[in-house]
Hints:
Blueprint: H1 2-13, E1 19-20, H2 28-36, E2 42-45, E3 48-52, H3 59-73
Parallel strand pairs: 1-2
Antiparallel strand pairs: 2-3
Helix pairs in contact: 1-3
Amino acid sequence: MAVAFKAVLQQLVNYSNMNVAWDINYDSAMASLAKSKMERPILLDPANPTNNVFSASSPSALVHVSQIARDSMETPLLRDVSINF
């Protein structure tokens, strides 16, 4: 569980490259089509593949989230957890 959590935090640290879609509620072809029309970072709404959740975020808020994620990865709980995928 700690590995998965740290992997999510790592994605948030590198948010500018994020490109995440969920294909549980819609097919991957639909998500690919929607993402092809969007600028990164991309975090598609799990219920609506045409909504990039990050598009409503201010740049300063994303920087703040990134810093909190970076700080969280350095806590004793996660510092020694390795991400190998």
